[in-house]
Amino acid sequence: MSRCRRVFYSMRTWLAMHSLFLLLRTLLMLSSAAVLLFVPMESVLAAWSPPSVNTGADAVLAFPAKDLTLFGHATDPENDPLTMMWTIASGTAAVRFSAPTALTTTVTFTTTGTYVLQLAVNDGTSTVKRTVQVTVKPASSQTAFYVDPTYTGATQNGSASAPWKSFQDGNADQTAQWNSINNALATNDVIIYFSARTADSDTAEQILGTSGPGSVIRVNRTDTSTHRLTLDGMSKYNANDATPNWVDYIGSNRMRLSMSGGCCFSIGWDDNVQRDYITIRGFEVTGSGARIRWGGSYSVLEYMWVHDVTSLGASVQFNAAVTDYPQCKDLGKNHNITLRNNLIERGIGEGIYIAGTYNFTQYGGCPSYGNTHSDILIEGNTIRDPGMNGTQGDGIDLKMGLLNVTVRNNVIENTHVPTGSGGGADGIAALGVFSPAKTNYLIEGNRISGATTNGMVLCSQNGTVIRNNVIYSFPGTGIYLAGDPMLPNYNVEVYNNTIYGGATGVGTGDTHGVTLRNNLLFGAVGGGNEIRGYNTTGMDSDYNLLAPTGSAFAEGPHSIVRTSTTGIVVDLATGDFHLVSTSPAKDIGVSLAPTGFSTDFSGLFRPQGTAWDIGAYEFGTSKLAPPRNLHIVGGN
Ligand SMILES: [Ca+2]
Ligand SMILES: [Ca+2]
Ligand SMILES: [Ca+2]
User: Could you list the residue range(s) of the whole structural domain that residue 254 is in?
Assistant: First the structure.
């Protein structure tokens, strides 16, 4: 519920907000000097110390899944800006990185085999490289079970020739089914193939959940080995209901899990038991109680189509790490969590909700528990109309204490606040972390439009980079760094975003240390400044293009304030924010290569032409350049 302190603001309330926080500060007897005590101290260290780099444990991926997330980590003793590069050191075929110059990336494989992938990190002086080995196994390496609800044979044992017909929660064979699955998991990876389509036509097979309280598929993993359990509703189908014949499927249908009433979920679990090494991929889930709820480390949720969930939200919800205050019972801190390539439409509550805890006890938070889940990738998802069917619907809601989160290349459209549900609905909302932890958030390449309130609202950040986002059609603030007097924002970098319309482009509150470069902030309605804020120190803003009004803060000498919003991008009416060839945003930005940033919204290498452009799009035609040469001096 709470975003920072669940404050509401618009262009009209900026001044009121400022007054509110002054009042809060007075009530809390906090002075500005007291707030400054929260500023992290940087140690004075000898120069030229190389960065510390970690690529995590060796990993295994089994087909038909092709995508694996790599969570790299890097820190530098002097806090030097770091540049990163993932490359393949050895392997049986080429691989594709979704973000070769970011610490967290998806790597996509086409061929089985053993791969060594390398992360090189440069601090401006030296490069340290570390490798991770990935073993990519054929689908046949897994113990397979099969589910086809329209199989007509009498014998059911989960084999390919005698698939389970009933697999829904509460079916008569449920205990035996999960005993078989858990026994198999003790010695091997397991995949359960759910028939993606019917034998006779390319339409989805379907499993119905029980009406009233219940669920469709309750994942009852009790085995605690590191073998992966994959539930796959997209890769195979049974072409013969009488004499089963399982064939590969590449069509667009997926096993449909339909939940006709009540709560609780279409697939996953709601008992807060920690279940790790689970992949859920390629199901269509729909119906009143059909939300997804799950958790666990080494968790993957991908290629799901979640739509028209109406009775309970969030539509897609990752379990909390701790129960609400005052109980504060430890449910488990999870890590290595991926949500990739999901389509989430017309839901209730948030589109994607990653629970952790809340920031203040009055909202149920457990500050004494500290930070919560870590290493999270939310990439390539499309979220449309969250909250349309009830309760406040942010597109992506990151709760308190989540560490090292990448939110990349998601499309978020039309967030809703249904009548009576209160609050606002932002494209992306994040509560941040408990000091002195670093957030290490990278929010890049997202396209957010039709937000009911703001593009994104970020609280309690400390070490967050926001770049290459396109935000338009919203009434509030495009990027709102909404710190709290008790939990301010620190060290936020805002680079090359395109924000059009709204009351203001970038807003800051209780934020100390924010760097803005190369942002195209234009079209604020009502004559408001494109950049403004309250209780903000360390605002460093330059090389931006602002129109038709400027900044409430001192803007650097390279920024341009332009009275007209026309002639900058291709088409404001249709949201085509590519620059026109004569754009005043072209070739006047500053190079941000030293910050580890090298591409534009569409993957184009920066710079094109003579210099970096302003905004999310670089004007030009050439594709991503090959990796830069790195001088390797360290590592193993
Ligand atoms: Ca260094
Ligand atoms: Ca069938
Ligand atoms: Ca350029």
Answer: 142-312
